[in-house]
Batch of 3 targets.
Target 1
Amino acid sequence: MKIAYVLNTYPQPSHSFIRREVQALEHQGVEVLRLAMRASDTPLVDPGDLEEAERTSYVLRIGAARLLAGFLAEVARAPRRSWRAVRLALKLARASDRGVLRHLIYLAEAAYVKRRCAAAGVQHMHAHFGTNATAVAMLAQALGGPSYSFTTHGPEEFDTPKAQSLGDKVNSAAFSVAISSFGRSQLSRWAAFSRWDSIKVVHCGIEPAKFSAPTTVPKGPLRLASIGRFVEQKGQMILVEAMAELVQHLPDAHLTLIGDGEMRADLEAAIKSKGLQGNITLTGWLSEADVRAQLSAAQALVLPSFAEGLPMVVMEAMAAARPVITTYIAGSPELVLPGETGWLVPAGDSAALVRAMLQLGTAPHDQLVTMGQVGRDRVLQRHDSEIEAAKLAGHFRQAIG
C-alpha cells in the first residue's frame, strides 16, 4: 500500500504528531510519499524533524513556470476534467477569503501532486488540517488523481468552516478523520447526513517507548511547564497574569514557557512589567528530548488555551506521569479527568487558573504522583501511535478497496 501525505508546511516543531503518524505507518509496512507545499520558516532543532525534511518533496520549489506548464499539460490531456477542476477551484475561492488567484495556485499545485502520485504508484492521498492542503488533495482528485482523505485538528477548521468549504471536503473525501469525539461532532455539523459514517475518530499518538521510564514528580518549590506556539489561542498571556497572582502565595513558584512565536515580545514585556523575570523562563523551541527533560523537572503541565483540538503536549505530559492543568474546551475533557489526572478550568478565567495552580502547589506529593500515574495509564491506553496508525491504515485499505 502506497500513500501520499499532502501537507502545507512540513515538518514543523509544533506538528511532530504528523511525523510520528507517518513513521508509525511505515513501521507497519505502508509506503509514504511526503509532498509538502513548502518548508518551515521556523528553524528545525529536533533531529527527527531534520530527517523528515530530507525525505520530503517541496512542491513550490519547482517554481511557478513549471507548475503552470504542468497544469496546462493537464488541460491539453483532459480538457473536460480540467475545466471541472477549475470550476471546483472557483467554488472554493468564492467561499474563502483567500481569493481566486490563491485557489488557482492550489490547482497548479494539485496538478503537480497528481503527476507525482501517478509516477510513484500512489493509491490514496491523505492531508492534515482541513485547510489548503486538503484543498490541494481535493483538486488533485478532481484532476484524475487518487482518492483522498484528511485529518482535522482544530481550531482553525472549526472557526471558519464555511470559508474552508469543510462540508464539501468531507462529502467528497473517501473518509475524514477527527482527533476527538468533539472534532467529529464539528465535522458532522457541516457534512451531509449520508456522510456521517465516513467521519472517523483516530487519535494523535505518542510513542510509548520514549516515555518508558518516567521520573517521579519532583518535590520542592512549584515548577510548572507550558508548551506551545506563542499565539493568542494558547493563553500564555493569561498565564503570565495568573503567575503574578500565584507568586503572592508561592513566591518560589516558577514557570517555563517552551516554544516561540509572534507573541514573544508581548510576553517578555508583560513578564518584565510584572517583575516576574525570576519566576518565568522562555526557552524557545526545544528538541523532543529537551521537552521531555523540562517535563521531568516540572511537577505539572499548564495549558490555559482559549481554542484547541486535542493538544499533543497534554498527551506527552500525561505519558511523562505529570498532572495537567488545562481548560474545558474542545477535546481536552475527553482526556483530562478533573481530580484524577489534573484540573480543568474555564478558558479565560484567570482566578480559576490561579486556584488550580495553588491547589497543585499545595497538594501532598503522593497525590501528584498518583494523578500522574493515572494520567499515564490513561494516555498510553488511548494514544499509542502504533495502535492509532493501524486504525488509519485500515481506513486507507478500505478506501483503496
Target 2
Amino acid sequence: MPTLLRELLHAPAAAAAAGVLILLALLALAASWIAASDPFDPANASLIDSMTPPAWLSEGSMTYLLGTDDQGRDILSTVLYGLRVSLAVGATSVLVSMTIGVSIGLLAGSAGGWLDSIFMRIVDIQLTIPSILLALMIDGVARVMISRELHSEIAIYTIILAIGVSNWPPFARVARSRTLVERNKEYVQAARIIGVVPVRILFRHILPNILAPILVIATIDLGLAILSESALSFLGVGMPPTQPSLGTLIRTGGNFLFSGSWWIFATPALALVLIVLSVNVFGDWLRDALNPKLRKRV
C-alpha cells in the first residue's frame, strides 16, 4: 500500500482523479450540513425565487450560487443530495456484483468439471443481454409485483439489486481464471495436505491472492454502475423525484434546457461527468499499477 501511494503521488492525472473522488464523496456524505436546506422538503420551497440564474450572471443572487430550479430549490443543494444517492447506489450495486461474481468464480474455479461448465454457460448467456435491459426487466418485474407506493419507498433497493445482478459476470470470469491458477500453487497444496477444509482454503488463502484484479474491475465498474443508475433514472424508471439521483435531476433539467434555464440541466450533468471521468482515470491507473508486467512503467 505505501508503494502504491507513492506511485499515485507521481501520477498527476490519477492523483487528481483520486482527489476529486474523495472530495465528491465527502461532499455527498456531508450534504445535510453543507446544503443550505433540504431541497426536497416542501416547506423549504420558495416559488418566488424559481428560475434564479447562477450568481455570476446578471440576474443571479449570491444566496443561490448555482441558481434555482422551477420550484425555487437551490441547485447546489439538490446536486449534493443527488450525488449522495448516485454514489450510494453505485457503490452498493458494485458490492452486490462483486459478492455474486466472486463467489461464483471461486466455486467454479475450485470445483471444475460440470459445475464449472454450468456456471460459465450462465455467464455467457448473461453477457449476451445488455445490462441496462436486464436492469429494466428486473425493475419492471418489481413494479408489477408490488404497489406503486411501496415501490417508491424501496426504489433505491430495487435499483441496487437490478444493477448488481446485471453486472456480476466480469467478476465471475476474472475470479474463476485466477482461481484456476492459484489452486495448483504450492501454498494451496500444502493447506490441503494439513487438512484445511476447502471452504477455508478458498476464502482464507485463494481469495486474498486474487483480489488485485477484482479491485480493478470494481473501480471501473463503479463508473458504469453510476451511469446505469443515471440512465434508468433519466428514463423515468429509476429513483423517484422524492429521492432523486443525478440522473433524475438531469431528466428534470432537460425540460428547461431550451427555455434558457440551462443551469438546471448543466449542473447535475457536469457533476455526473466529473465523477465518472474521475473513476475511469483512477481505475485505469490502478489497473496498470497492480499489473506486474506494467508496474515499472506506471
Target 3
Amino acid sequence: MNSTADDEKILRGVLDEWKAAVDAHEPERVASCFTEDAIFQGLHPYSVGRQGIADYYDSQPLGMTADYQVLETRQLADGLVLGYMSVDFSFVDRPTLAVYLSLVVEQAADRWYIRHYQVSSLG
C-alpha cells in the first residue's frame, strides 16, 4: 500500500473507531485503539500506555465529541503510516476546541493501532 488513498483509508479505519469511542465517552474503548506502549500527548502531560490514555479520556467532559479531517498522510514503512489531521472537539457547555493531531499508526496482525499521538493547539 503505497498510495495516499490507501494510507488515508488506513487512518480513517483507526480514527473512525477512536471517534466513535470518544463520542460515546468510553475511555477503555478509546484506549483499545492504541498499542500497549503508545506514546500519548493530549493537552495535558504525556503518558505511555493504554491506562494513561483511558484515564485522560475518562477525565474529559460528558458530551464531548470529535470531528476530524485528514490533511496529510505518509507511509513511513510497511505497516507504519503517519497522519496529520485537524480535529474539532465539541462540548455541550463551551466553545469548540480546534487542534492539530499528528499520529503514527502501526499494523499488528490484521488490525491497525495508534502508536504515537500528539495534539497541538496553535491558538
